[in-house]
Amino acid sequence: MTSDSATIVALATAPAAGAVGILRLSGPAALEVGRRLAPGVPASPTPRHAYLASFVDAAGAVLDEGLFLYFQAPRSFTGEDVVELQAHGSPRLLRLLLARALEDERVRPALPGEFTRRAFLNGRIDLTRAEAVADLVAADSEAAVRAAAAGLSGALAERIRALETPLRELHADLEGVLNFPDEAEGADAEAGPRVTALRSAAEALRAEVGRGRLVRQGARVALYGPVNAGKSTLFNRLVGEARALVDDEPGTTRDALEARVEWDGLGVTLYDTAGLREAPGRVEALGIARTRELLAAVDLAVLVLPPETSLEDAASWTREAGATPVLAVTGKCDAIPGARDTVSAVLPSPAPPRVSGLTGEGVEALRTTVLTRLWGGGTPSAVALVSERHADALRRTAEALGRAEAASRVSTLEVLSGEVGLALEALGEVSGTSVSEALLDTLFQRFCIGK
């Protein structure tokens, strides 16, 4: 697959007023068209040198003054000739420059993600790095930024290569034995253990998909429990501002409130939910129904219980979360300082902290415990951003290797080699060594135009 011969153009900055706006061209006519907009630039400009230039319209009237940069193929992001015009960030000015570039019949508007797609097709980056570009643009937490940057520098690509290279070597050895049995005798030795090791590596990468989702999208955590347990006060304390109404009257919260915070670089969406109780009013009952729906969708449910809740009630509230993991805490610990803590008897040791949204007691310990339950150990930014697409390809890789493992014991060499080939093809969908145009279309549609 190769990119077409058209020169593409797009605005590389948002279509809003700002200090700087960038027009980007890539393709064989990029330099000629760029110089038409900035005729004062030398015919053979020095690559990677910034020229102060006047940008003109078709009549030669000056529209703006800015910077002209030329990146010569193949030493550019796309692997083609690339020109960037850095003008003042007037949306109207940038549209005039864009229209001027499109007057040339060799130039067309870039499609979403087409600059990055050309970089992939021209061998400048592999598919994991291309996807990391979109992850970096969409990142909305420190962990997401750092993890995407690691992907862009090749962290995931290296792990995929560490799996793909020996898998390709194994497939070549097996095919060699099948096609040239005399010359390649013994090349299939230890094929079974090699397949087992490769399958384990594929499963290890696939296991990181959950962490990758948390980094990309952030975690979802809901506070729930009986009415008047201190959920809203705790919610306000965790958020750092008074987002939820607080009153002594039970059932104050009628709907789920939502707030975004960032803890240790990980984005977390907190929900304050309507308290659960029997025989509520009609509006409150709608809130309770919404609470139950939300509990099924979050990553962690924090059960806030009043002091001296009975073990039976605590167990009953825990069951309300269904399959969602539960972290139970004793709320309002300031109300009765010596209150008996029954929560520790409900969950395994170590017991989560007693908290007070009013005084802040135990809140920092609660944040730490929540992050531990969500993430386990390590640093969120160090995770490989394994996506759902990657997970599906790795699942098929592992399944094919599982069949190959069985074939190495009970079947023919042809079957073994065939399954290894299927595993290699599935893994190639992650690295981009075996990928269809349709899949590329789907992947790059989520990119912004100009990237």
How would you describe the overall organization of this protein?
The structure is a single chain. The protein is α/β, with parallel strands linked by helices and 451 residues long. It is built from 15 helices and eleven strands. It folds into three domains: 7-110, Probable tRNA modification gtpase trme, domain 1 (Gyrase A, domain 2, 2-Layer Sandwich), CATH 3.30.1360.120; 132-211 and 385-446, tRNA modification GTPase MnmE domain 2 (Four Helix Bundle (Hemerythrin (Met), subunit A), Up-down Bundle), CATH 1.20.120; 215-375, 3-Layer(aba) Sandwich (Rossmann fold), CATH 3.40.50. Strands 3-4-5-2-1-6 form a six-stranded mixed sheet, with helices on one face. It has a five-stranded mixed sheet with strand order 8-9-7-10-11, sandwiched between helices. Residues 127-448 form the MnmE helical domain.
Range of helix content: 40-55%
* Overall tally of domains: 3
Separation of termini? 20 Å
State the total count of DSSP E strands. 11
What's the helix and strand layout?
Blueprint: E1 7-11, E2 18-26, H1 30-37, E3 50-56, E4 62-71, E5 82-89, H2 91-102, E6 107-109, H3 114-121, H4 127-138, H5 142-152, H6 155-179, H7 191-206, H8 209-217, E7 219-224, H9 231-239, E8 257-263, E9 266-272, H10 282-295, E10 300-305, H11 311-319, E11 326-330, H12 363-375, H13 388-410, H14 413-431, H15 437-444
Parallel strand pairs: 1-6, 7-9, 7-10, 10-11
Antiparallel strand pairs: 1-2, 2-5, 3-4, 4-5, 8-9
Binding site for (6S)-5-formyl-5,6,7,8-tetrahydrofolate: 24, 84, 124, 451
Domain MnmE helical: 127-448
Main location: cytoplasm
